[in-house]
Amino acid sequence: xxxxxxxxxxxxxxxxxxxxxxxxxxxxxxxxxxxxxxxxxxxxxxxxxxxxxxxxxxxxxxxxxxxxxxxxxxxxxxxxxxxxxxxxxxxxxxxxxxxxxxxxxxxxxxxxxxxxxxxxxxxxxxxxxxxxxxxxxxxxxxxxxxxxxxxxxxxxxxxxxxxxxxxxxxxxxxxxxxxxxxxxxxxxxxxxxxxxxxxxxxxxxxxxxxxxxxxxxxxxxxxxxxxxxxxxxxxxxxxxxxxxxxxxxxxxxxxxxxxxxxxxxxxxxxxxxxxxxxxxxxxxxxxxxxxxxxxxxxxxxxxxxxxxxxxxxxxxxxxxxxxxxxxx
Length: 328
Prior knowledge:
Elements: E1 3-7, H1 10-17, E2 29-34, E3 44-46, E4 58-62, E5 67-75, E6 80-87, H2 93-106, H3 112-121, H4 125-156, H5 160-178, H6 183-199, H7 203-218, H8 225-241, H9 245-262, H10 268-283, H11 287-304, H12 310-327
Parallel strand pairs: 2-6
Antiparallel strand pairs: 1-4, 3-4, 5-6
């Protein structure tokens, strides 16, 4: 495609920009382009009469056109950024020289730093300040992701002190930048809860953190059901350690129901739920129910994993030991 597609209709442009969700990484932006037809510019054409979408009032502008930035500001009412630009004349050699100079100085990066530099050059330090403040926030969120990742890695290495240190640092950063009820905050609470029940046998702290995670995860509609199932599963594991088997069974079934509804039938998380239920029923002496769930778990894992995988071997061993108990 050798043309930039634009529209004469601001409402049409708004319809397109509102199709995209605003996130921490994506902002909504509309370019308001001014064209003086008397100037010798890159080719542009109104194709309303030829376009299949006639109501869009489409104007095509040839790629490679140079635009003079007049103003960039945030429209808080509409929740979008506005960039007011004008199509530059091909004879505007001064602008071309400035563009070449700025391109060499700023490089080809299209990040917040380059935008901030442009805004400073344009004499808009207030807008540049917004860019650099957001850049700082994004760098801190990246740090939080690194802290969280280290915490999870140390959890898998069974290093509880190191794991909690990094997870709590990630929690602090995310709370300060995202607020108390953000899902990423809930994720930190979930893993802190896992450290407490899995590595420290501190079930009170485990329940406190997992219930905080649950409160955050259950609030938005629609919920992230897969994350919700993970929290239910960890609450079930905690209650099993506390020998509160009825509560454990309730949460295991909640996790299984979500996974069966939202995941493929041979997903490993469903196999994990079946295995967890098998272990729970074995703990309370219901060996026939335990065997049933172990065999359901094994049926899935054999389809998706090699026979030497630890999950397959573990479930096979669980079934062998359980059958010995049934034959005693």
